[in-house]
């Protein structure tokens, strides 16, 4: 098996140089310049093929350039793309209905990026607190977890526990309280008379695929109900089949009051996000309270409708559960001394290396040389989240490449 780095042409080097020169340097990407994608695979400008084990942070669950989503997008793009919500369009009602029926929700607020869905939920929950719960104006408090990731807006980074995420961007909005993730007693203790919501990820993705203890969410649900606190689950990464269920909350047998979805909601073709709710919470919004020029536009709706349809009709959610088990077992069987733990649910997996094993970044560089793209997180963890259309052969191939990369470094 070859461990040499794949060829890189002068044209790729030039593109990298140009990007470095003109672009804000807020990312440090692997030096692979992609130009085409199909299914689980992407190709770089030199024609090298890679299996994509990041899926654009789970935005491409349906696989790259899914032909049915592409067809829905081009058809809608040639008919009507944007009306703004000043007028109605014929795609939005169908999108609402299909999304509500699929997720067992009563009301939808359509937005674009994931961070916008989070911001919208925070606004709505505060308003619910004042109008329904009876919290005194300006006093609403929202509880969040340490090591959270909910996006990059000012309000959101203000309640991050990560120094780089917050650093240099203050002052921040008040009204948030941080508790440890996975600790139901801490939630119970943190709730006061002004607490209106608890915002949490079912599995902390950016923190390195951190799974809470068994029974945590059963207790969280019980506490939030008893204390009249809105439970907001951020399923932007865990949702839409990633963990082997439509929503990760289904593993816990609970239902959130507000559920946030985004990313794979449009299969990687378009930024589409949504706040899903019962009628009581989203019901507080009156005309003019909140909005978005692009939210709920007909192109977004047509793309999202098809992205959801293929996810269900083509069995991607069940496949995620099956292939996730297979890949986790395959990675677990490698038994290399550098591996500390293989964890995850469905196709949301992570391999944590021992702290003295040389780091996750060099391993990701080696994997790239072997035709596999993955992302290092927090120095010692490699995240593996391929599209949900992964086959058994491809799952086995990932494990095999992973073992080869470990041996090469
Ligand atoms: C990606 C992500 C977001 C933010 O979504 P953007 O589209 O990047 O704004 C929020 N929450 C979670 C859990 C995410 O993974």
Q: Layout of helices and strands, plus pairs?
A:
Elements: H1 10-22, E1 34-38, E2 41-44, E3 49-52, H2 55-58, H3 67-77, H4 92-103, E4 107-111, H5 114-133, E5 141-145, H6 154-158, H7 163-166, E6 176-179, H8 184-190, E7 195-200, H9 216-226, E8 230-234, H10 249-252, E9 258-261, E10 273-277, H11 279-282, H12 298-313, H13 316-332, E11 339-345, E12 348-353, H14 360-369, E13 372-373, E14 375-377, E15 381-384, H15 392-408
Parallel strand pairs: 3-13, 5-6, 5-7, 7-8, 8-9
Antiparallel strand pairs: 1-2, 2-3, 4-10, 9-10, 11-12, 12-15, 14-15
Helix pairs in contact: 3-12, 4-12, 13-15, 14-15
The structure holds pyridoxal-5'-phosphate.
Describe the structure.
This protein has 409 residues and is α/β, with parallel strands linked by helices. Helix content is 38%, strand content 17%. It has 15 helices and 15 strands. It has helices spanning 10-22, 55-58, 67-77, 92-103, 114-133, 154-158, 163-166, 184-190, 216-226, 249-252, 279-282, 298-313, 316-332, 360-369, 392-408; strands spanning 34-38, 41-44, 49-52, 107-111, 141-145, 176-179, 195-200, 230-234, 258-261, 273-277, 339-345, 348-353, 372-373, 375-377, 381-384. A hairpin with a 4-residue loop joins strand 2 and strand 3 (49-52). Helix 3 (67-77) packs antiparallel against helix 12 (298-313). The mean pLDDT is 96. It binds pyridoxal-5'-phosphate (PLP). Residues 57, 113-115, 118, 149-151, 201, 205, 234, 236-237, 262-263 line the site of pyridoxal-5'-phosphate.
